[in-house]
Design goal:
With about 180 residues, the protein is of the alpha+beta class. The chain has helices at about 10-15, 20-25, 65-80, 85-90, 95-110, 130-140, 145-150, 155-165, 170-175; strands at about 35, 40-45, 50-55, 55-65. β3 and β4 form a beta hairpin.
Length: about 180
């Protein structure tokens, strides 16, 4: 009997060249109900939670209504080189500008920048004296529209102060008595 020699196979012959990533060729990593961001990343919603996967490993999750966490993870995926901005835009149907803003926030303020309370404007129209005069006029029975007009303040601004409980409107029932 003659012995057969098995010739070694080079790496190039053993693995056919394709554009698809190697792990996906071995077995399907992503489930059929998962939205693919690219060939390495996927996202899936289960009940009220959104889960992000790198291959079959979950990397992050958040509540479906948690927009700051969504902005943070998409910016992080881009900044860390796991996805391009266009892959994120296509996968989630969001604008390029919103991705760019999230990336800017991530780079300048870090993760905490997505969760800190936004600074509001200061109240320069309603000084202590104006608030006192407005409340006195309201207490004397004038309507919100009349008081706003008398003080030269827009009605919307005046009603906002009432909603924020800086001014207190008198009920219509109390006015009649």
């Amino acid at each position: 009997m003659s012995e057969q020699k098995i010739s070694p196979v080079s790496k190039d012959e053993a693995l056919p060249k394709t554009k698809q990533a190697w792990p996906e060729r071995q077995l399907p990593i992503f489930s059929k109900d998962m939205v693919l961001i690219n060939n390495k990343l996927g996202v899936k919603q289960e009940e009220d939670s959104i889960y992000y996967f790198n291959g079959c490993m979950p990397i992050f999750s958040h509540h479906k209504d948690d927009y700051p966490s969504f902005r943070m993870i998409t910016a992080q995926l881009y900044v860390n080189g796991n996805a391009t901005q266009m892959e994120i835009v296509r996968a989630f149907g969001i604008s390029v500008v919103s991705v760019k803003r999230a990336v800017k926030t991530y780079r300048t303020l870090g993760v905490g920048g997505f969760y800190k309370k936004r600074a509001g404007r200061s109240s320069t129209i309603f000084t202590k004296d104006v608030l006192k005069e407005a409340q006195d006029l309201l207490d004397s029975g004038e309507s919100a529209k009349e008081v706003a007009s008398h003080l030269g303040i827009k009605l919307d601004t005046f009603l906002k102060a009432c909603r924020e409980e800086r001014l207190h409107l008198i009920d219509a029932k109390k006015k009649k008595t």
